[in-house]
Amino acid sequence: MNITVINGTEKHGVTYKIKEMLLEPFRQNATITEFYMPKDCPAFCSGCTTCFTKSETLCKDYEYIQKIEKALLNADLIVFTSPSYVMHATGALKSLLDHLGYRWMPHRPAKEMFAKRAVILTQCLGAGAKSAAKDIKDSLSWWGISYIKTFTAKLMNNIVWDKLTENKRKSITKGIKRLCKKLCRINYLKPAKTSLVTKIKFNICRMIQKSILASNTDSADGKYWEQNGWLKKARPWKNLKMR
Asked: Which phi and psi (to 5°) does residue 127 adopt?
């Protein structure tokens, strides 16, 4: 089993502690690959749109992005973590998600993503954990992932694990263990089920791509959809196999 973890910060604080608790049951039987923002993707997306209009391989930061994307495509379980910064995901993590914008369904989604399962872990001091999780979930769902679990924690009075109240530590630990049980029961040899919402979004994007390709035969996105057979009867969730 392969697990890929994208950490929204390099800090080893409460978010890191929660992530370590989640991974603990998997460590003996899984290969875990981790990336830490901004160390593993230090450059901001410049908004040049080259990845959309031409190819992601021409991105100035492709050396970073291709390593992370390869790990995501090889993963059986994807884990994203982020503390809440001003009620949202960290800027470094947002920059990575911006870089991967070409993988959104209106552009060139990777068919492998429709088989994936993902977990989002966020925490905040007061408020913002849910909005931070939504920042990440928006991208994951538009990549084609239907199975997305979120775990959010409100620390309220401290940002250091050992200084949290005993009841707060117990509550977080209990919640993570409950989530772990659900994740450990999954047969990762089978692809995740694609939801109706994902299929509807895909079909809307399919109609858009047919229209675009009809008026612009050089469209990178349109060609990609055509090559995959998605403009006809092929669908990314059909005949899916895990690695």
From this structure: -145, 160
State the pairing for strand pair 2-7/77-83.
Answer: parallel
Q: How many CA atoms lie within 13 A of 207 on its CB side?
A: 5
| Triad 195, 197, 199: Cα angle to 5° | 75
31-36 vs 147-154, strand pairing mode: unpaired
Buried b (16+ CB within 10 A) or exposed e, 205-243: bbeebeeebeeeeebbbbebbbeeebeeeebbbeebeee
Distances from the Cα of 129 to the Cαs of 14, 81, 134, 174, 227, in angstroms? 13, 11, 9, 18, 40
Give the pLDDT confidence score for residue 239 in this predicted structure: 78
Which candidate, 61, 116, 117, places its Cα nearest to that of 92?
A: 61
Tokens at residue 136, please? Answer: 């990440």
Residue percentage of the chain with pLDDT more than 70: 98
Q: What are phi and psi of 66, to 5 degrees?
A: -65, -30
* Residue 242 binned pLDDT confidence (cut-offs 50, 70, 90): low
Q: How much of the chain is in helix, strand and coil states, percent to nearest 5? A: 45, 15, 35
With 0-12 / 13-18 / 19 or more C-beta atoms within 10 angstroms meaning exposed / middle / buried, residue 73 is middle
How many Cα atoms are found within 13 Å in the side-chain-facing hemisphere of 230?
29
Tokens for 204, please give them.
């809307």
CA distances from 32 to 89, 113, 208 (A): 22, 18, 38
CA distances 79 to 52, 76, 105, 236, Å, are 26, 10, 20, 22
> What is the chain's mean pLDDT, rounded?
95
